[in-house]
Amino acid sequence: MLHSTDAIRTTHVGSLPRTDALLAANAELTEQGRTPAFDRLLADSVTDLVRRQVETGISQVGDGEYGHAMSHSVDYGAWWNYSFARLGGLEPSGLDRWADTSVRRSGPGNVVLTTFPDRRDRRAFAEAYSDPDSGILTGRRRALQPKVTGPLTYTGQQAVAADIANLQAAMAAAGADEGFIPSLSPGSCSRIANEYYATEEEFVYACADAMREEYRAILDAGLVLQIDDPSIAENWDMINPEPTVADYQAFTRVRIEALQSALRGLDTSRVRFHVCWGSWHGPHTTDIGFEHLVDLMLSVEVGGYSFEAGNVRHEHEWRVWQDRVLPDGAVILPGVVSHATNVVEHPRLVADRIVRFAGLVGKENVVASTDCGLGGRVHPQIAWAKLAALTAGAALASAELY
């Protein structure tokens, strides 16, 4: 992964706003799959998107997760839901991710993982969550998820090949030197109903074995692979009653070890690991502190670590880097603009955040990024304004640091 040797490099976490045409085309997809017309639209959309990223000043560009179908302009689940169409062994369940409370899974330390309606943050702010005018954007159309009823296999070879080809063609057209594609982690992949595997650990490792094929395809193409793993932090809020930190770390370590297994033998210098506390616009008062997760994150042997650092609930946690040593050759990709607010960060604030991290881990080891995906979380006009603020702030920081 390229380091910030001459100036602060910039990137984002993955999801970028879809065009109206692409959203409409997603809605028209049928069980027969993608048509040649859809494939042309998707390829052209990625080309336009990468060109715009380069023009905005983004160094490490992405395909915006355009190959991951989004149901609506506001969609918190596309980063995860896309995997349903790329895995064998699943069947429709009728379970609604946002409403159903019947899915329960146990893990080490008597940890029981529940579903969105039982989040502790949602319980603590029940009145606000139930008010459609509160600004807590959780309401969506029904989001049905499948269940696992047979051996998990990877069936998304054509889809990931299209993602790779589209990004590579777009990078060549725009002159981009580095590009990434996000892919789902085993821990996040396993957050669906399991009716086949005997144990939670067996299930998580089956997810790792299946998703490994997607990881390998992206890396073999010479691209950067982003492992999307909100579950590492977000699961904490989905456990009732609240576990001890030690029990939660044991629960999480299984997922970390499964990911390590999935990455065995691959070029992990081009892997970036993304951790966040979930994209919904809620109070987040029950988020676990980053100080309890950072060592687990750093135990994943990859080339880059992406995490929230601009979110007002977590910005203060830059302090964890005062007594941590970054693995040799690795970079951090802190979020210096956030998906969690419509306020566009001032470039000077962005620069200050970057300079602070540069002082902790070395300027060459900082790649300025976003907290999470902007697509489906903020309005497209605001999303692009945030990316412009990101690159403007990086330019200010570079003038100060180099």
From TrEMBL:
Signal peptide: none annotated. GO terms for biological process: methionine biosynthetic process. The keyword Ribosomal protein does not apply. The lineage of its organism: Bacteria, Bacillati, Actinomycetota, Actinomycetes, Micrococcales. Keywords: Transferase. The keyword Transferase applies. This is Epoxyalkane--coenzyme M transferase. It comes from Tersicoccus phoenicis. GO terms for molecular function: 5-methyltetrahydropteroyltriglutamate-homocysteine S-methyltransferase activity; zinc ion binding. SUPFAM superfamilies: UROD/MetE-like. It comes from the Bacteria. InterPro entries: Met_Synth_C/arc, UROD/MetE-like_sf. Coiled coil: none annotated.
